[in-house]
Structure formats: C-alpha cells, structure tokens
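From the shared-data thread, chain only:
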Amino acid sequence: MRRLLGTLGLIGALALTACGGGSDDKASPTTAGPVTTAAIGNDQAGTPFCGLARTLEPKLTAVVANLSDKAKLRTAATDAEATISQAQGAAPAEIKTDVNTVATTAGTVLAALRKNDFDLAKTPEFSKLQEPAFQNAYGNVNRWARAHCGVG
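Structure, as tokens:
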C-alpha cells in the first residue's frame, strides 16, 4: 500500500504536469505520501479487504502507465474504480472513514475524467489527489494495510 500511496501521488503529479500551461508561481505538487514505519503484519491477510488491497496497486499503476492513451486510461481507471468501490464495502471498522474518504475522492476524480472523455488537460479535479484530507486518509489506510494485510 505504501507504493500505492506513492502511485496515487504520482497520478496527481503527472496529471497536473500533463495539464501544463500553469504559471511558474504555483508550487510544484509533491509525489510522496506519508512514510509508513509500522511493522508488516498479516493477521487479517485472508480478509476480503486485504485481498483487494493487494490487487489495487497494479491497477493504479496501470492508470499511471496509460495517462497519455485515452482508451487504455478509460479501461484502467474503470478497473481501478471497481476495486476501490469493493474495498469501500469491505473496509474494517477501524479504517472505514478513511477508506470512504479515499473512495469518495477517487470517485470524484474518475467521474470528472469520464465527463471530460479522459482528457487530463480538462480535468483539474486530479489535483484532489494532492489534498491533505485525501493524503492523510490514504496514509491511514496504507499503515493499516501494512500492519494487518502484509501489504508493504
């Protein structure tokens, strides 16, 4: 999940870069999320949520890999969105609020992408992946997944 957080930050950064045209007076987006120092554990590795956590990273990596190809981006984003939605339904109580924040933000970004025919230049909502509320919630999910799912 730690790499997933970086992937989400990278998606936001790449999208902002792809949008281009910004002035030099804007701060550059960061691409790294909170550092995870929790021990890796697997006491809940067999749960549906942990299974979804393990599959989400490659799906988001596919989104990043296809930012410049609308058709492939559409497919990858739809696949990632389905997994995020499933994770929201399977989230354990301890991180349910954080998973909901992550899922809601990701859903907003993906809906905007669909609305704009997967044109990053027309989708400023990508910047929501850089907002502190999203980054903090995702950091919490990341730490939990590392400590309980063996994802790290």
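The two ends are 5 Å apart (CA to CA).
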